[in-house]
Specification:
Elements: E1 3-9, E2 14-17, H1 19-29, E3 34-40, E4 45-51, H2 55-68, H3 89-98, E5 102-108, E6 111-112, E7 118-124, E8 131-139
Antiparallel strand pairs: 1-8, 2-7, 3-5, 3-8, 4-7, 5-6
InterPro entries: UPF0047_YjbQ-like, YjbQ-like_sf
Family: Belongs to the UPF0047 family.
Protein name: Secondary thiamine-phosphate synthase enzyme YjbQ
């Protein structure tokens, strides 16, 4: 069963689309039908399938999560204990827990069965740049 580790370089918090890379993997693997499982190997980022037509959607989602879970140095977050790695670390773990670290996408006729406006995103929750590893696995 074909597998690949995709590396996504981030520049800080936000959504980074990798639909094209995932679709290319499926085409290269030659799978006509099956399931693409996508898994991110980190605890402070997550995966989303989201609209890829209007960049305002990505901006609004990012702002929503920043408001929902502010940095640990925000007065409302004084209860946080895990602060060794900076004020964005524990909030990043919380955001990852609220979202998902793996998604499954059906493959039909050799293509990802995403909707017209759907894209596949790494959702970075840390402020610093990172190199994130995403495992792509194409199964029957």
């Amino acid at each position: 069963m074909p597998q690949k580790i995709l590396t996504v370089a981030t520049r800080g918090q936000g959504l980074y689309e990798f639909t094209r890379e995932a679709a290319a993997f499926v085409q290269e693997a030659g799978g006509e039908e099956g399931l693409l499982t996508v898994f991110v190997r980190h605890t402070s980022c997550s995966l989303l399938i989201q609209e890829n037509a209007d960049p305002d959607v990505r901006r609004d989602l990012d702002q929503f999560f920043r408001r929902l879970v502010p940095p640990s140095d925000d007065p409302s977050m004084r209860w946080i204990v895990h602060t060794m790695e900076g004020p964005d670390d524990m909030p990043a773990h919380i955001k990852a827990a609220l979202t998902q670290v793996s998604v499954g996408i059906p493959v039909i006729a050799g293509r990802l069965a995403l909707g017209t406006w759907q894209g596949l995103y790494l959702f970075e929750h840390r402020d610093r740049p990172h190199r994130r590893e995403i495992v792509l696995h194409l199964g029957p």
